[in-house]
Design goal:
The protein is mainly beta. The chain has one domain (about 5-125). It is about 5% helix and about 35% strand. The chain has one helix and eleven strands, in the order E-E-E-E-E-E-E-E-E-E-H-E. It has one helix spanning about 110-120; strands at about 5-10, 15, 20-30, 40-45, 50-55, 60-70, 75, 80, 85-90, 100, 125. The strands form three sheets. Strands 2-3-4-5-6-9-10 form a seven-stranded antiparallel beta sheet, with helices on one face. A two-stranded parallel sheet has the order 1-11. The longest helix has 11 residues, at about 110-120. The radius of gyration is 18 Å and the shape is globular.
Length: about 150
């Protein structure tokens, strides 16, 4: 991720995940002077406070760099890395080996905009757009009122 000409010029809008009401996501292309076929894919689960930013290579359809927050990762050698970790593609492990994100990601998962800025700095991506706030979602509560009528 050493190329410093990578940039995102589009504004980012979070959209709801049709499969999971607590999750929002976005996908945005990354442009560079070398025309790398990459984009950033991300998701945030508000309920579990799990956040993921992934740089995906279009031609192989795999993550070449990424950040996961809120879920422990076990490396191929069995070592636990922790809840906040980075993945970097290697020929030996592909994207299965991770390392701690403590040295570069300082914001908590429930602050996706701040984490996004730190992730872009770590990945050498110049973000020139704007990121909208995550939309508010009214979670539905289903419970029995025991015959009590609230509205008539």
């Amino acid at each position: 991720m050493s190329n410093e000409t990578k940039r995102i010029t589009e504004n980012i809008t979070w959209v709801g995940d049709k499969k999971n009401s607590e999750t929002v996501k976005f996908r945005v292309p990354v442009v560079s002077d070398q025309d790398y076929p990459i984009f950033v894919d991300r998701s945030y689960n508000r309920y579990l406070e799990r956040l993921s930013y992934k740089v995906i290579h279009k031609e192989i359809g795999r993550r070449i760099y990424g950040l996961d927050m809120g879920k422990e990762h076990r490396n191929p050698d069995g070592a636990l890395v922790g809840e906040n970790h980075l993945h970097k593609w290697s020929e030996e492990y592909e994207d299965r080996k991770a390392y701690s994100a403590q040295q570069c990601i300082f914001s908590p998962a429930n602050k996706p905009l701040e984490v996004w800025k730190e992730f872009c700095a770590e990945a050498n991506i110049n973000f020139l757009g704007a990121m909208e706030e995550i939309p508010f979602v009214q979670l539905e509560v289903d419970f029995d009122l025991g015959g009590i009528t609230l509205y008539e």
